[in-house]
Amino acid sequence: MDFTTTQLRVNSLNFHVIDEGNGPAVLLLHGFPNTSTLWRHQISALVKAGYRAVVPDQRGFGQSDKPREKSAYSLPNLANDAIGILDELNVERAHVIAHDWGSAVGWVMGALYPNRMERFIPMSVGHPSVFTDFTIEQLRRSWYILMFQFENIAEDMVMKNDWALFKEWSCHHEDTEEWIEQLSEPGALTAGLNWYRANLDPVALPAMPLQLPAINVPTFGIWSSHDPLLTEEQMKRSGEKVLSNWQYKRVEAGHWLQLDEPELVNRLIIEYLNEELE
């Protein structure tokens, strides 16, 4: 599926960005281990519905630059990337749809730059202050976050035996081989793991939860019932951190719900973006 792409220079880095359609802008942010192709089923649907889809490979992924420094991947830097991309495209305000780590970036955008966001649809990952108020069940599901902290060792573990652990972790998703190919590019796996290392350092765990303000942006949280990595509670409770209109939907899908149930996800997204809110 071919989309219109551009290369943007933001925060001294080069970003590969899909920019398709006209109308109100919708910024779509992927997480680990993905790229902009995660949203391939949503882009056409949004354009058909009259929206402009802006879909970057976030720093460290795909065809965008991959800084070596762990600190480069802190959430404020990632949120500033998103704002810089909007600036370069002359987009004053955008709807933000995000998944996994992209959702964390979106929550930070909402806290720091609420005037740049129209509506927010976080998928899978709730508000960072809620997510990092770890329950026992979430800690059980987050075992890999601690493993990813071990520099070089984690890389070796992930790649061992033809990426066997990674394949298990991704539930042998049909896109897994594509993700492995992308992460096999020079520096790509370490860059992706640095998202975890920069923001969830074990040294900081006793001070959790993260202290991030509530957001004043209309928000529609979506969680998928077959997600092995994230609990429903951390998304449902995120409504406590939304000062504006809050809605929540549980769907029957795996972690990568936009790939597993694209028609359902597209319908939910477009209905929400078109909905008149009180």
Give a brief description.
The protein has 12 helices and 8 strands.
Can you put this structure into words, describing what you see?
With 278 residues, the chain is α/β, with parallel strands linked by helices. Helices cover 39% and strands 18% of the residues. The protein has helices at residues 40-48, 75-88, 101-112, 128-131, 136-141, 143-147, 153-169, 176-183, 188-199, 232-236, 257-260, 262-274; strands spanning 5-10, 13-20, 25-29, 52-56, 94-99, 117-123, 219-224, 246-251. Strands 1-2-4-3-5-6-7-8 form an 8-stranded mixed β-sheet, sandwiched between helices. Helix 3 (101-112) links the parallel strand 5 (94-99) and strand 6 (117-123). The protein is globular and about 50 Å long. The mean pLDDT is 97.
Mean pLDDT across every amino acid position = 97
What is the helix tally? 12
Measured by DSSP, the beta-strand proportion falls in: 15-25%
Order of helices and strands: EEEHEHEHEHHHHHHEHEHH
- Count all strands and give the number: 8
Low-confidence stretches: none
Topology at a glance:
Blueprint (H helix, E strand, L loop, with lengths): L4 E6 L2 E8 L4 E5 L10 H9 L3 E5 L18 H14 L5 E6 L1 H12 L4 E7 L4 H4 L4 H6 L1 H5 L5 H17 L6 H8 L4 H12 L19 E6 L7 H5 L9 E6 L5 H4 L1 H13 L4
Parallel strand pairs: 3-4, 3-5, 5-6, 6-7, 7-8
Antiparallel strand pairs: 1-2, 2-4
What keyword list fits this structure?
alpha/beta, 8-stranded mixed beta sheet, 278 residues
